[in-house]
Amino acid sequence: MAHKRITIIDGHPDPRRARFVHALSDSYAAGAEAAGHEVRRIEVAALRFALLAERSDWEHGQVPEDIAAAQDAISWAEHLVILYPLWLGDLPALLKGFFEQALRPGFAFRPQDGGFPLKGLKGRTAHIVVTMGMSAIFYRFYFGAHSLKSLERNILRFVGIKPAARSIIGNVDSDASHRAKWLRNMSESGAAAH
């Protein structure tokens, strides 16, 4: 198997290491590195950036230093792993703010007069991992996995990133064996680079 360049985007807004998303991120990275893949990591909770409030800032504003480094890690990658907890049915606000900052015009896409924008991140794949307290089946079938689908369609595909895998992890507070199973699963996914 060819080795890949992988960037992991840990989207939990709480930097405390006790959060399960951080453990999943660590497991994926460990599995990938043990298999010989190159790994870079972005921990959104550790970045310093302001939320965007004006279109002009998004289009022409100064890119914060931490966001520029994140853009470098994203453009370097062949495969992205995006992990986040489901909050109020959607991405945490800090992760959404990160994507607004990082996936700016000129980097993630290039507007074209009278046509669709050129996709600036074409050729990359993504594995999305979302955790939640409710049942994954309930989220998938009753709520239609809407935040995950929105991330795939409205953000990733728009800039050329092809969602290739998804992991919906429900009942994260249930028991240690359930968490251990998912940590093993993430390590295996990292080794396989999917």
Word description of this protein:
This protein has 194 residues and is of the alpha/beta class. It has one domain (5-192): Rossmann fold (3-Layer(aba) Sandwich), CATH 3.40.50.360. The protein is 41% helix and 22% strand. The chain has helices spanning 20-34, 55-60, 65-76, 93-102, 136-141, 146-159, 176-192; strands at residues 5-10, 38-43, 79-85, 109-112, 115-119, 125-131, 162-169. The strands form two sheets. A five-stranded parallel β-sheet has the order 2-1-3-6-7, with helices on both faces. Helix 1 packs parallel to helix 7 (176-192). The radius of gyration is 16 Å and the shape is globular. The mean pLDDT is 93.
Low-pLDDT runs of 5+ residues are: none
Structural classification: alpha/beta
CATH architecture: 3-Layer(aba) Sandwich
- What would the CATH topology be? Rossmann fold
State the total count of DSSP E strands: 7
For the sheet with most strands, the description reads:
5 strands, parallel
Oligomeric form: single chain
What is Rg? 16 Å
Q: Give the CATH level 1 class.
A: Alpha Beta
Cα distance, first to last residue? 12 Å
Strand content: 15-25%
Determine the mean pLDDT.
93
Order of H and E elements: EHEHHEHEEEHHEH
The number of helical segments is 7
Q: What level of helicity do the residues show?
A: 40-55%
CATH superfamily: Flavodoxin domain
Sequence of strands across the biggest β-sheet: 2-1-3-6-7
Write down the domain tally.
1
Q: Characterize the overall form.
A: globular
